[in-house]
Design goal:
The structure holds two protein chains of two kinds.
Chain A: H1 20-23, E1 27-28, H2 29-43, E2 47-51, H3 67-71, E3 76-78, H4 83-95, E4 99-106, H5 114-121, H6 124-127, E5 137-142, H7 157-161, E6 167-169, H8 174-186, E7 191-196, E8 203-204, E9 219-222, E10 227-231, H9 235-248, E11 253-257, E12 260-262, H10 266-276, E13 279-286, H11 291-303, E14 312-316, H12 325-331, H13 335-346
Parallel strand pairs in A: 2-3, 2-4, 4-5, 5-7, 6-7, 10-11, 10-13, 13-14
Antiparallel strand pairs in A: 1-8, 6-12, 9-11
Helix pairs in contact in A: 2-8, 4-5, 9-13, 10-11
Chain B: H1 3-28, H2 43-52, E1 58-60, H3 66-77, H4 81-87, H5 121-134, E2 141-146, H6 153-165, E3 169-175, E4 178-179, E5 182-183, H7 184-187, H8 193-197, E6 204-208, H9 212-227, E7 233-238, H10 253-262, H11 265-275, H12 280-303
Parallel strand pairs in B: 1-2, 2-3, 3-7, 6-7
Antiparallel strand pairs in B: 4-5
Helix pairs in contact in B: 1-2, 1-3, 1-11, 1-12, 2-3, 2-9, 3-4, 4-12, 5-6
The chains are: A alpha/beta, B alpha/beta.
């Protein structure tokens, strides 16, 4: 159809009803991280960003988009598939006062640089008697729920939970993602910064200015009096949704968002546990030897007399992550699992 | 090389040997905790490297580097005894006894510490070199590695990245023939490490690591190449370690005899100095002075206090204290 007469005229632009999102431009988790990196690079001359496909391509998830054009290839540096060399480069540069930020495309690949992180980065300050610091940040995309399969879906915090010297940061929303990333870059301790892939598209009103969210502090994401749910990353929005539903049943749920997994904010966790006396600990990772194990043990140790019943754990099953989505749904915890755990705890 | 320089290297080699022999003696007496990997037999390689590295350069020492650590500490810090004290686990050590034999570091003298997962710092050295490049500093970042390191993935990741980024890295591979008990030619595709490095396009040189004149001259050329901004350089020092394995000597008798008796680096230097007319008594004086110094260092280490128990929980984090018992 080349005859222009036969082409229907463009319909007049329809009047749209103003929506909430038009009043305040909401920012995605990814954009919040991107903004944080931009602000940090402007602040710290000695900061560089390094990883696979992070320069002109802007990263597999677009977190470093635009930084290459703004700051150039010296400070926004693509690498070959050499995770050990990426972290080693960051460690060595940090030893002489630079402030590198590495992107490990998928957290599952941390196995390739595990030695660098565990034996070098985490121990450097200690074993050399404080003569070196390792002010580097390792950003990485973790978590399942999208059919990524066994090597693109894991929750890896347990791999590092037993490693003194490393800080593990795990935001649950765009506002914290920005503030925590800026705080991580400012920190003189090495930070493993976990970005749950299912959260990348979540949106919120994110202040455009430079601000930091202190490391090692949890947030009470929702106040309540009957049951405490301690969660992080993707489990937080699930816990909040489950809490809302529980409130309809007359159960008041407090949600504690850990934000930093190591060292975690024991004061906030324990005081909430002592207040409600009923605790659910929710994690996506396999149950055995993980964050849920640590939290439930600590809460039981320190709040035993205040507890009405045992800590209830919500976890992933003790399996690798299967590819097929119906199988993955069997393995990973969901909102219904959190609701079921709240119902059990509420009966104590 | 002029004669005073060669006498200086001779002194440095004796400092390394006396350090290690004194340490061995104290280890056998039970005064040195943990494990002991000495650099005996490899003195020329270490002295040659130390000769050209400045305090503003960086080196990551290998398993058998007490000697170069002590040399750098003595030369640039004036307190070589603190390396000895570190090996005794004492408060006066360079890391207050927290690092020990395999983690002695002092950035003020360029010593960025061994990492006892051998080869790991092949990755770390990249970052130090990258920082120097970004800051336009003419510094050399040196990774001293053993032949066993060649088997690690970091070896290849490091050579590749140093090559593509033209980083100022000096790779000093101390090929002493064995990774613990594994002969270099059985554990690697080539017994000549340089053959494997050539594919990365990095300039290489294989040399007699027991011949201190040749070693020092080659290190000098490599360092000049790197300082002038021409990128990484790989040196393979063919040498041999005196120490056997835990179970004792396992190498052929003829091989032991060759390296210990016919190709001892100090003996080779002694012969070279004799040809230049330096008297035996002058060399004997050098040897005795250094041995006395080492005995002073051992006394210092022995008499130093143990670390304050509070050190056990200090410096895990910059921003947090960790729980004490």
């Amino acid at each position: 159809m080349t005859d222009t007469d036969t082409v229907p005229a463009k319909p007049a632009r329809r009047e749209r009803k103003p929506r909430q999102s038009d009043k305040v431009r909401k920012t995605s988790f990814t954009q919040a991280l991107n903004n944080a990196l931009d602000l940090a690079m402007a602040k710290h001359d000695e900061m560089f960003v390094i990883g696979e496909d992070i320069a002109e391509m802007g990263g597999d998830f677009g977190v470093t988009k635009g930084l290459f054009n703004k700051y150039g290839g010296e400070r926004v540096r693509d690498t070959p598939l050499s995770e050990a060399a990426i972290i080693g480069t960051c460690a060595g540069a940090a030893m002489v006062g630079m402030r590198p930020v590495a992107e490990i495309m998928f957290a599952d690949f941390l196995g390739e640089c595990y030695d660098q992180i565990v034996n070098n980065v985490a121990k450097m300050h200690y074993m050399f008697d404080g003569q070196f610091t390792a002010p580097l940040v390792i950003r990485t995309a973790c978590g399942g729920g999208f059919g990524g399969g066994p090597h693109h879906s894991q929750s890896v915090e347990g791999w590092f939970l037993n490693v003194p010297g490393i800080v593990i940061v795990a935001p649950s929303n765009p506002v914290d993602a920005k503030g925590l990333l800026l705080a991580s870059i400012d920190s003189d301790d090495p930070v493993l910064f976990l970005e749950h892939k299912a959260l990348y598209r979540s949106r919120a009103e994110v202040p455009p200015d430079y601000y930091t969210t202190p490391l090692g502090t949890a947030a009470v994401a929702r106040e309540g009096s009957d049951v405490t749910v301690v969660a992080s990353m993707r489990m937080v929005p699930m816990a909040l949704a489950a809490a809302e539903k529980a409130s309809e049943q007359g159960v008041s749920v407090e949600v504690v968002d850990l934000r930093t997994i190591r060292p975690y904010d024991a004061d906030t966790v324990l005081s909430s546990a002592a207040k409600t006396g009923r605790v659910v600990v929710a994690n996506e990772a396999p149950k055995i030897g993980g964050l849920g194990s640590e939290l439930s043990a600590r809460i039981s140790e320190e709040c035993f007399s205040e507890l009405s019943g045992p800590v209830v754990r919500v976890d992933g099953l003790d399996t690798p992550i299967p590819f097929s989505v119906p199988l993955e749904e069997v393995v990973l915890p969901d909102e219904a699992a959190v609701s079921a755990a709240i119902a059990i705890a509420a009966q104590y | 090389m002029d004669t005073p320089t060669l006498i200086g290297l001779y002194r440095d080699m004796w400092l390394i040997r006396a350090f290690e022999q004194g340490l061995e003696r104290e280890f056998e007496k039970g005064n040195v905790p943990g494990m002991l990997h000495t650099g005996l037999g490899q003195e020329a390689t270490q002295a040659a490297l130390a000769h050209h590295l400045k305090a503003s350069d960086t080196f990551f020492p290998d398993h058998r580097c007490h000697g170069i650590n002590a040399l750098a500490q003595h030369r640039y810090g004036g307190d070589g005894e603190r390396i000895m004290a570190e090996l005794f686990g004492k408060a006066t050590g360079v890391c207050s006894g927290k690092g020990g034999s395999l983690h002695s570091a002092d950035p003020n003298v360029g010593n960025f510490g061994d990492n006892a997962v051998e080869g790991s710092y092949m990755a770390t050295v990249l970052g130090v070199a990258l920082a120097a490049k970004i800051r336009s500093q003419p510094n050399v970042a040196c990774a001293i590695i053993g032949d066993g390191t060649v088997g690690r993935g970091e070896f290849h990741e490091s050579l590749n990245m140093a090559a593509i980024w033209d980083l100022p890295v000096l790779y000093a591979c101390v090929n002493n023939g064995y990774a613990i008990s594994m002969p270099v030619g059985e554990g690697h595709a080539s017994a000549d490490i340089v053959d494997m490095v050539k594919g990365y396009g990095i300039p290489t040189r294989q040399l007699d690591g027991n011949h201190v004149i040749e070693a020092a001259e080659e290190v000098g050329e490599a360092v000049e190449h790197i300082r002038s901004g021409k990128g990484p350089y790989f040196l393979e020092f063919k040498t041999w370690r005196w120490q056997g394995i835990f179970a004792g000597e396992f190498r052929p008798e003829a091989e032991v005899k060759y390296w210990r008796e016919d190709h001892d680096p100090i003996m080779l230097a002694t012969e070279a100095l004799a040809e230049r007319g330096v008297s035996q008594s002058e060399l004997y004086t050098v040897e005795q002075e250094v041995k006395e110094l080492i005995e002073e260092w051992i006394s210092f280490a022995m008499e130093s206090p143990s670390p304050d128990p509070a050190k056990a929980t200090a410096d895990v984090y910059v921003g947090w204290e960790v729980a004490t018992r």
